[in-house]
Write a structure and sequence with these properties.
Distance between the termini: 13 Å
Number of helices: 6
Structural class: alpha/beta
Strand order of the largest sheet: 4-6-7-10-11-13-12
CATH architecture: 4-Layer Sandwich
Length: about 230
C-alpha cells in the first residue's frame, strides 16, 4: 500500500502539472491538518484519490459545522467517494476523520483521527490533556468492536499533535499528548501519523517507534509505503 501523507504546508510539487502522474499509484491521501480545504479539493480533483483528514489548530474553516456533522464512527466506507458521494463533504469528496474511527472496506484498513493541538490560548481545535482523553474514550466502543470483528483495533491513528516526548516541543502550543502514548500501549496501531511540528530541515528525523507503533511526522509531504497494510 502506498499513501501520500500531507500536513501543515502546501507543496509546490503537489500543485505542479506532474502531480497526476507522480502520484498515480498512491492508494489514497492522509492529512494531519493545518491545510486549507481547497488544497484537499485540488488534490482529490487532480489525482482522483480519497483524502482522509483531521483539523490542526490553524486553517479551521467550517470547524463548528464539521465537528457536529459528517461520518459517524460506525460507517464502513468503500473507496473513492467522488464529488458528493456517500460520506463525502459538501465542498469535496474527502473523508473527515476527526474524532472518528472508520473502516475502509476497499483497502481493508481501519483509520481513526484525533485532530487539534494542546490547549494554549483557548482557541478552536485545542484540547487539554483531559479533554483529549475524553475524545479517545468516545472511540473505545468502536475499537473494541474492531478487535472482535477484524482481529485488530486499529491500523492508523492520524493526529495533528505528536505524542508527548516524541518530537514535540517544550512550548505549550507544540507540547505532545501523554494520552497518545497510553493509546499506543493499549491499542497498538501500526502507525501514528502527525504533523504540527515543522521540519524545515529536510534531513530532520521523521520516524520513531513506541511499542508496536511507528510514529511519523508527515509535515508537508511524505510517502508511506507498507505492503502489510490492508492485510489485517
Amino acid at each position: 500500500m502506498k499513501i501520500l501523507c500531507i500536513s501543515d504546508a502546501t507543496d509546490t510539487l503537489i500543485y505542479s502539472s506532474v502531480a497526476p502522474e507522480l502520484y498515480r499509484d498512491v492508494d489514497f491521501v492522509i492529512s494531519a491538518g493545518d491545510l486549507p480545504l481547497r488544497y484537499y479539493d485540488y488534490i482529490q480533483t487532480m489525482i482522483r484519490k480519497d483524502v482522509w483528514w483531521v483539523y490542526g489548530n490553524h486553517n479551521l474553516e467550517d470547524f463548528d459545522r464539521m465537528l457536529g456533522k459528517g461520518i459517524t464512527s460506525t460507517d464502513v466506507l468503500g473507496g473513492f467517494s467522488g464529488m458528493g458521494g456517500a460520506g463525502a463533504m459538501p465542498s469535496f469528496g474527502g473523508f473527515f476523520l476527526d474524532g472518528k474511527c472508520l473502516y475502509d472496506k476497499k483497502h481493508d484498513l481501519i483509520i481513526a483521527g484525533l485532530g487539534g493541538s494542546m490547549l494554549y490560548n483557548n482557541g478552536q481545535s485545542q484540547y487539554s490533556e483531559k479533554q483529549m482523553q475524553k475524545r479517545i474514550n468516545k472511540l473505545i466502543p468502536r475499537l473494541i468492536y474492531n478487535k472482535k470483528r477484524y482481529g485488530r483495533a486499529l491500523d492508523i491513528l492520524v493526529t495533528h499533535a505528536p505524542p508527548r516526548g516524541m518530537g514535540d516541543g517544550e512550548d505549550l502550543c507544540h507540547k505532545g499528548f501523554e494520552c497518545f502514548l497510553q493509546f499506543m500501549e493499549k491499542y497498538r496501531p501500526k502507525y501514528l501519523l502527525h504533523g504540527h511540528v515543522h521540519l524545515d530541515d529536510i534531513n530532520a528525523p521523521r520516524l520513531s517507534e513506541y511499542c508496536d507503533t511507528k510514529v511519523i511526522n508527515i509535515y508537508k509531504n511524505y510517502i508511506l509505503e507498507d505492503d502489510t497494510l490492508g492485510k489485517g
